[in-house]
Specification:
Number of helices: 8
Strand order of the largest sheet: 3-2-1-4-5-6-7
Strand content: 5-15%
Largest sheet: 7 strands, parallel
Distance between the termini: 49 Å
Length: about 260
């Protein structure tokens, strides 16, 4: 049995990746990760300045789009093929949590939460997978959440949408396998994204991190590292998988102090 060159399995030279939600945080780090291992990156964001900034940093291409709109998503992949050639990979990190009790949700807030978490996933799997047809295969990787696998206060709607994302990953891995397209997701925990950094005080961060077994929240680059693994040939036999990158949060059941063993 031949021993592969394991380092080469991370080499994405000659491959073109579309990153949805590329402008900051996890998305920007995913662009850097892909670029550093040779991929050409099409950086998609709803903010043109953010898209242009990250594309310049990674020597990629920028596209401005609202990925919850079918016509915009079709344009994204048309532009990607025009700018770079055949699409061989997609990383989709778009999402935002509306944290409040279910009883407080208005109809438009419900629709918006599902659009920003789930609708673009449907469009990615439909339009993006079709754009990858004839390329010999590739990978589609999403950012899920432990909110889709566990009960988190105030995230009933967000969590249910992420749970649906996880299920789409599992089912579409089967549907797209004949095209040699792998579909996976990284279920992130608490991440120091620009959005969350702006919302939590230092004291709140300390309180949150005490609940994480590793005692620290993830940096966006750590989630990007997991995305890179799943997108690369290191994970060539991995599909339909939800990889937890949460510092151990999903592996524990919180107990009151008296229940902890000595």
């Amino acid at each position: 049995m031949d021993t592969p060159n394991y380092l080469s399995l991370l080499d994405l030279s000659g491959r073109n990746f579309v990153v949805l939600g590329a402008g900051q945080g996890i998305g920007a780090q995913a662009c850097h990760a892909l670029s550093q291992v040779g991929a050409k990156v099409i950086c998609v964001d709803n903010d043109p300045d953010r898209a242009a900034s990250i594309s310049s940093a990674v020597n990629g291409h920028s596209v401005t789009a609202d990925v919850t709109r079918r016509e915009d998503m079709q344009r994204v992949f048309d532009e990607a093929r025009r700018l770079a050639g055949p699409v061989t990979g997609i990383i989709d990190i778009v999402g935002e949590a509306n944290t409040q009790r279910l009883a407080s949700f208005e109809d438009d807030q419900w629709e918006r939460q599902y659009a920003i978490v789930l609708r673009h996933v449907f469009l990615t799997l439909q339009i993006g997978a079709e754009a990858m047809a004839g390329t010999g295969g590739g990978s589609i990787t999403f950012v899920g959440s432990i909110a889709g696998t566990a009960s988190i206060p105030g995230q009933s709607v967000y969590g249910s949408a992420k749970a649906a994302l996880h299920q789409l990953v599992r089912t579409m891995s089967y549907e797209l396998a004949p095209r040699n397209i792998r579909v996976n997701a990284v279920a992130s925990g608490i991440v120091r994204t620009p959005r969350l950094e702006s919302r939590l005080s230092a004291a709140q961060w300390e309180q949150v991190e005490q609940k994480i077994p590793l005692r620290k929240a993830a940096m966006p680059s750590q989630i990007a590292s997991a995305l890179l693994f799943l997108a690369s040939d290191m994970a060539s036999h991995v599909t339909g998988h939800i990889l937890a990158a949460d510092g151990g949060l999903a592996a524990i059941t919180p107990l009151p102090p008296f229940a902890m063993p000595e």
